Every structure is written in C-alpha cells, then in structure tokens.
Inverse folding.
C-alpha cells in the first residue's frame, strides 16, 4: 500500500460519492487533505470524519468550478494553506441527459466548465510545481463513457473522452520525470450521479461501489498504468467501440438511452 504520509492531496468534488471515497483512502494512507466542492456545509462533515478517524490535517475550500475563475480561486486558497500539493484528484463532475436540443444550454456549458475546463486549468496551475520537485500524482476521473460517443449524453461522453485523452498524453509526457498521471474510468457506480443526471442506468450489471472504483485507481497507480477501467463488465463494454465500430455502438446506445415520449 503506497504511503502518503507527509504528502498533501487535493480532491475536487470531495463532498460525496467517488471523491469522498478518494479522501478516505488517501487519509487512511496518511495524506493530509484539501477538500473542494461548492458547499462548505457538505464538506465539513467529510473533513471532521477524516480528522477523527485518521488524525490527518484537513482544509476545506468551497468553490464552484463551473465559474470561469473557479479553478484560480481554488488554487489561490490552496496556496494560502502553505502546503504543496503532491496528489491532485480531479474528480468533480456531473452529467446531463436528454435530447440535445431540449437540454438547457446553460447547464451543458456548466458541465463543460466543470468536467473539462476545470480539470485542465487546475492541472496547469499545479503540475509545474510537481515537475520542479520531481514527484507528484495526478488522478483524473474519466468514465467508461470516455471510450465511446454517448447519444443523449453527448456533452458528457465528449467531456470524459477529453479527460481520458488528456490524461494518457500527460502520462506519457511526464512518467520519466517522476510524475504519475492516471485516468480512472468508472462505469455506473452507486453515487448521487444519477440523481443529478435525472435518469437511473446501469450497463446490465449491478452498480459498482465507490470503494471498488478507488481500489481500481490505486491498483492502476501501483502498476504505473495510464488509465484503468473499474470492473470486468465495464472493461468489456468500453472496448465495444473498438471491436464493433464507433457508429454502430453509438446507434445501439441511442436505442438504449432514447428518452420516452415524443418525438
Ligand atoms: N457515478 C457514476 O456512475 C460515474 C461513472 C463514471 C464517472 N463518474 C464520474 O465520477 C466523478 C464523481 O461523481 P460521483 O459519481 O461521485 O457523483 P456525485 O456523488 O454527484 O459527486 C460529484 C461531486 O462533484 C461536485 N461538483 C459538482 N458540481 C461542481 C462544481 N460546479 N464545482 C465543484 N464541484 C462540483 C459535487 O459537489 P455537490 O454535491 O456539492 O454538488 C460532488 O462533490 C464525476 O467526474 C463523474 O462524472 C461517475
């Protein structure tokens, strides 16, 4: 088990789901933590639990990463803690579901800001110091959706494809310089994600647990992989586009996800 004592980790979207599970696993390995999410009220109980259970230092930063200046405000507050970030987990994110023309343009824009723009910007702000120190870890939460086009979740699938491609490129660019970059690709996982999305779904199997996702991520880090897919069934479905062709898989997905009712 990798030891993160004397290391500080920043986790975005730390107030629930996969992000909260990451904070728990990192604290169990001795890391001090900076937790970021929009609501201080939701972050506080997570922070208190980590301090009580693991005796680590924890800072909370309420921030809306959909705002243009969100990532810069976050990093400003991180710098105010006087801690260098050794581990960055870009986890904050959400999806939108429905016919593209009917989805509020504003919400899709916020989705791109959180799922894509903030991931790139926060990484850009924190990675140079890791390079200077000659060590660091960046974990970006992508999705099995990153491997294929996802009709009725077009913006989400495209956003996660960005995260996957971006992470693999940085993995190859920085692995010889002491920086590990990993994309974690969960399939349907038991979190608030589907309440926010407004539709339940699974890839035929049971929902995965957040602990399973985080364990897969640590296995990926231990093995120095560029990306990791959580769960065997998710691994198979993620490879469908490669085997069957991107158009065919998008067509099948469109039939599966098409919203009920007109048109
Ligand atoms: N669950 C799945 O099936 C699944 C599958 C593949 C990938 N993922 C990815 O896993 C990541 C975590 O999602 P989850 O499943 O754990 O869902 P979740 O429980 O809804 O957690 C999402 C986290 O992101 C935060 N967040 C949302 N909007 C934000 C914003 N504007 N600024 C800063 N933080 C924001 C949320 O804070 P609030 O609660 O305060 O809004 C929450 O802490 C996401 O990137 C998601 O795309 C999830």
């Amino acid at each position: 088990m990798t030891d993160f004592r004397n290391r500080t980790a920043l986790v975005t979207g730390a107030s629930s789901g996969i992000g909260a599970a990451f904070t728990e696993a990192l604290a169990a390995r001795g890391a001090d933590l900076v937790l970021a999410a929009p609501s201080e009220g939701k972050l506080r109980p997570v922070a208190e639990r980590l301090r009580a259970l693991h005796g680590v230092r924890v800072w909370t930063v309420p921030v809306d990463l959909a705002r243009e200046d969100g990532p810069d405000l976050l990093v400003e507050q991180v710098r105010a803690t006087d801690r260098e970030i050794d581990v960055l987990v870009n986890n904050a994110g959400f999806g939108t579901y429905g016919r593209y023309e009917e989805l509020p343009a504003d919400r899709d824009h916020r989705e791109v800001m959180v799922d894509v723009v903030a991931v790139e910007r926060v990484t850009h702000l924190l990675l140079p110091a890791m390079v200077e120190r000659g060590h660091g870890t960046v974990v970006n939460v992508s999705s099995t959706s990153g491997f294929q086009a996802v009709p009725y979740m077009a913006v989400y699938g495209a956003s996660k494809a960005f995260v996957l491609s971006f992470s693999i490129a940085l993995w190859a660019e920085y692995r010889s310089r002491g920086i590990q970059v990993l994309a974690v690709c969960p399939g349907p996982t038991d979190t608030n994600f589907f309440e926010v999305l407004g539709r339940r779904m699974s890839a035929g199997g049971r929902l995965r647990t957040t602990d399973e996702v985080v364990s897969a991520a640590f296995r990926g880090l231990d093995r120095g992989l560029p990306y990791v897919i959580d769960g065997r069934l998710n691994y198979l479905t993620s490879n469908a586009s490669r085997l069957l062709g991107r158009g065919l898989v998008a067509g099948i997905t469109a039939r599966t996800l098409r919203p009920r009712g007109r048109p």
User: Anything to note?
Assistant: The beta strands are 8-12, 32-37, 58-62, 87-90, 136-141, 179-185, 227-229. Residues 8-257 form a domain with the Rossmann fold fold (CATH 3.40.50.720). The first helix runs from residue 17 to 28. DSSP finds ten helices and seven strands in the chain.
